Amino acid sequence: MPITFLFIVHRLLDSVWIESLRYFIGASGVALLCWLLATRIAHRRIQTRRATNTDRLREVRQSMWSMAVFAVVDLITVVLIVIGAIAFNDGPPVLTTILWQTAALIVMHDAYFYWMHRSLHHKTMFRLLHAVHHLSRTPTSWAAYSFATGEAAFEAVIVPLMIAVITIIAPAEPWAVFIFLGHQIARNAFGHAGFELAWPGFARSPWTGWLTTTVHHDLHHSEGRYNFGLYFTWWDSWLGTEHPHYHERFEAVVNRRETAGQEMPVHGAVSP
Ligand SMILES: [Zn+2]
Ligand SMILES: [Zn+2]
């Protein structure tokens, strides 16, 4: 494909458009769900503090900036296609390939996110790159992409690199990338939702306990020192960074009765 100035401009605009669509569907979908279920899930609100409209506006504004950064970083994908490091399957989709590639993308992304996120909590990195995300001490689904410029670049750069890795084994299935990206925004928006929708026992069950919950990431926002994982609890539990009271806090939220004390105290302050 000829790389012209016009091609680059088109590619940037396409990226911003696709990312925005994904973000607004994911973040507004979760916000709408919480709003529709407001009375039924009021007792599942995780923090006593309420996010304000100013918080939401800041999260949306910062997310829109991040999407512009994502679009620039996405130009790496073009370079990798040109040099042959990324190839997409342009034949009929193959179900087994879609399945393993989707799983591989999710597992690789989770590992990358854990280590990147943990590094961003190093003192100097935190101030420069990650403090903006932690302005959302009581996050809402709109915080999904609320990143400073540097963090947005780190968040985005892994995607073309992972597609290059799976291309080593087989041309990437566009459906695998599509499902991975849809799963990413859905889990991200739910992780910041502020309400726990999972059921009692979810965090302890061998069938579901390896999946992160909203309480898991919410504790990261309210206390900062633990729970760096994204989709799975694996890395935090392997490396001892899981919040020491994660399970109690999770059970406390999901076992509250609708009429009982509906709120949970917020402890500590955010620090790297
Ligand atoms: Zn963090
Ligand atoms: Zn977050």
Would you mind describing this structure in some detail?
α3 crosses α7 (149-169). The chain has one domain (5-254). It is 60% helix and 0% strand. It contains eleven helices and no strands. The protein is mostly helical. Mean pLDDT is 93; it is low at 260-272. The structure holds zinc ion (ZN) (2 copies).
Helix proportion: 55-70%
Order of helices and strands: HHHHHHHHHHH
Number of domains: 1
What profile does the largest beta sheet have?
Answer: none
Structural Rg:
19 Å
Kindly summarize this structure in a few lines.
This protein is mostly helical. About 60% of the residues lie in helices and about 0% in strands.
Write the layout of secondary structure elements.
Blueprint (H helix, E strand, L loop, with lengths): L4 H32 L1 H4 L11 H21 L1 H8 L12 H26 L2 H8 L18 H21 L4 H18 L22 H10 L10 H5 L7 H9 L18
Helix pairs in contact: 1-3, 1-8, 3-7, 5-7, 5-8
The protein binds zinc ion (2 copies).
Keyword list:
globular, 272 residues, disordered C terminus, single chain, binds zinc ion, mainly alpha
